Amino acid sequence: MTATTLHKHHDTITNHNESAHVVIDDEPLSDYALNEIKEARREIKRGEFYSEKEIKAMFGL
Predict the structure, then answer these.
(1) Strand pairing class (12-15; 4-7)
(2) Continuous segment of H or E residues that includes residue 18
(3) Which ranges of the chain would DSSP assign to H, the alpha helix?
(4) Torsion-angle region of residue 16: left (phi > 0), alpha (psi -120 to 50) or beta?
(5) 8-36 mean pLDDT
(6) d(Cα 17, Cα 19) in Å, to the nearest integer?
(7) What pLDDT is stored for residue 37 in this prediction?
(8) Residue 48 and residue 34: Cα distance in Å, rounded?
């Protein structure tokens, strides 16, 4: 399991030795975006996704 920390005051996310600056948007997501997220969650529950290992194999990585 990976430990990730969101630092609100510095707008960074720290993941072990890596940091990324992020912007937190207070605007709500559009209906389209919400529907896409819901559909993605349904696909995951149905097992309709590729694992990282499978994707790497497809691209020869």
Answers:
(1) antiparallel
(2) strand 18-21
(3) 31-45, 52-58
(4) left
(5) 71
(6) 7
(7) 92
(8) 19
